Amino acid sequence: MGSERSRTIDTYLGIDWGGTYIKSGLIDARGRILKQETFSSRQLKKKDVFIDKVISLIKAYRTCTIKAIGIGAPGIVDTKKGFIYYLPNIPGWINYPLKNVLEKKSNLPVFVDNDANVFALAEARLGTAKGARRAIFLTLGTGLGGAVIWNGKILEGNVSASEIGHVPLALAGTRCSCGGRGCIETFVGAQHLVSRYQTLKKNTSSYEVKDIFRNALNGEKEALTVWQEFSQALGTFLGGLVNIFNPEVIVLGGGVAGAFRLFKPLVLAALKKQAMWPNLKGLSLVRAKLKNPGIIGAGLLAKEALN
Amino acid sequence: MGSERSRTIDTYLGIDWGGTYIKSGLIDARGRILKQETFSSRQLKKKDVFIDKVISLIKAYRTCTIKAIGIGAPGIVDTKKGFIYYLPNIPGWINYPLKNVLEKKSNLPVFVDNDANVFALAEARLGTAKGARRAIFLTLGTGLGGAVIWNGKILEGNVSASEIGHVPLALAGTRCSCGGRGCIETFVGAQHLVSRYQTLKKNTSSYEVKDIFRNALNGEKEALTVWQEFSQALGTFLGGLVNIFNPEVIVLGGGVAGAFRLFKPLVLAALKKQAMWPNLKGLSLVRAKLKNPGIIGAGLLAKEALN
C-alpha cells in the first residue's frame, strides 16, 4: 500500500497520543494504515512543538488527500469542542482549545476524543467487537482506560466520559490516579498487581506484570493469588457493568491482558456470580486483537465525524 | 378531564406494577392522567387473574380510543419481546411472554419495560429531568431501582438493563436481593438503613426510615450517623456513574428520598470528591416530583413505541 494509492483516495490522519509514545498514521476509509510514524511523547510534550509536528506531518503527506485529523488524547476532553481539560500524565495541557488551534494552522477539520474511546471505536469497527451494538472496553495497564459503545456509538456526553476505569469498587478505598478513591484501577491496575505481589513475596524486587504471569503459569502460589484476586475484582466489577449495559461483548486490551488466557475463566466465574442472568445471554469476554488500535481509532473518529 | 374528552382523543393505558399495589391509568398524548384505579398486587399475583383484570379495564374504558398498553413490571424483562424473565418479589412469573398473550387477548399493541425505566421515562419527559439528554435515576426504597436516560432514551439492550442499583460498591460484600454481592442497594436500601440504625441504637425496635429522618432533624447522633454513612456511599457511587455518563441531572425518588433535603449536601460533597471535575459542570441533583410517575411512564412507553 504505497503512495500511489494514497494519492487517489481519501485519507485521515490518526494520532495515538500515549504517555510514552505518540504514533501517527494515515488511514484510508476502511481503517487500513497507509503510512505510520512514532515519536517520543517527551519530545512533543510542549504544546507548540506538538502542533508544529502535526503540521509537518501534513506537509510530508502533502501528496495525499487528507480529509481530516483525529486525535486520541490521554485525558479528559470536551469532545464537542475538541477542548482539552487536562491530561493526567502530561503537565501543562490544561484548558487548551486543541481543535481550534490545530484547525486554524492546518486548514483541516480536527476531532479530539479520549484515547480509550478511540481504542474502543477501532475495536468496534474492525476488531473483536466488530458489529456489536453494545460493548464494554477496558485497557488494562498502569492506568485503566475504559469505554462503552452503545447503539454502535461511543457513549459520551459533552465530556469524553465513558470512564468505566474510574468507577469505585470500595468506599474510602485507595487513592486513585483520577483523584477519587477505590476505583477499579486501584484493584486491577499494573501498579497494584506488582505491589500486591511484592507484599505476598515479602520482598521489594522490581517485578513486572509479565513476571507474575509467568510465575503463575509455573504454579507459584503467590503469583496465582495475585491473579485470583485480580479476577475476583475485575469479574465482580464487570458484573455490575453488565447489569447496566447488557453488552454483547467485553473487550480487554493493554499490557495486563497479556495474561488473558490465565485469568479469563476466573473473571468469567466472578462475573456470572454478580450479574443478573438474563444479561449473560450471548455475552462474550475477549481480548483486543488490533495492532495499532489507537491510530486506527483516531483516524476513524475523524472519518465518522466528517460523514 | 372527564369521559367526554377521552372519547375524542387518543389515549394509552399505563400499568404501574408494584410489589404492593398495581395502579392503572388512562393517559393522553401529553401524559395527563384521565382515569385511574388502584388494585392490590396480591389479588392479581396469578397470571390469568392479572390478564383478565387488564382486559376488564379495557372493556370498562371502551368508550375511549385506547391506542396501546404500556406496562412497567417489577423485574427483568426482554423489552423487545415484552417477555418477562422474572419478577424478584412476585413468584410464578418466570419466562412469560406477557406481550404476546396480552396482545392476542386485547387486540392492542402492548409494550413492557422495567418499572424503574418507566419511572425514568416519565421524569425525563414531564418531571425534574424534562429535556435532559443524559440523566441518572434511582428510586430509593427497600429495593433500589435504577435507570439511565442517554441521548433522550432509556439506556437498555435486549434486556431491561440500566440496573444501576445493582452495581457493586464492595468486593465480597453483603448478599443483595439480585443475587449478587455488595451492590449499592446493600449500602443505601431502606432495610440496611433500619438495621444499621438498630445496631447504633443497640435495640431492635421496628424503626422506619422516616423515624431515622425525624430523629436526625432533631440532632440525634445515631440517626445523623446513618445519614452520613448513607450519603458517603451514595455520593461516592454516583461519582463513578458521573464518570461514565456525564449526566446533566441525577433524579432521586422513592420513599427514602423523603430525607432529600437532609442528605442532599452530604451526597453532593461525596460525589464531588469522587468524580472527575469536568463531569461536574452543569450537573444537578434533584428529587423526583411527579405524582404517579409509574402510570405516566408506562403510558408514555406505549405512546413512544407506537410513534
Overview of the structural elements:
2 copies of one chain form a homodimer. With 307 residues, the first copy, chain A, is of the alpha/beta class. Chain A is built from 10 helices and 12 strands. In chain A, the strands form 3 sheets. A 5-stranded mixed β-sheet of chain A has the order 3-2-1-4-7, sandwiched between helices. Chain A has a 5-stranded mixed β-sheet with strand order 10-9-8-11-12, sandwiched between helices. Chain A starts with a helix and ends with a helix. In chain A, 52% of the residues are buried. The interface between A and B is large, with 53 and 53 residues.
Write the layout of secondary structure elements.
The structure is a homodimer of 307-residue chains.
Chain A: H1 3-8, E1 10-17, E2 21-28, E3 33-40, H2 47-60, E4 65-73, E5 76-78, E6 83-86, H3 98-106, E7 110-114, H4 115-126, E8 134-140, E9 144-150, E10 153-154, H5 185-188, H6 190-201, H7 209-217, H8 221-245, E11 249-253, H9 260-274, E12 284-287, H10 293-306
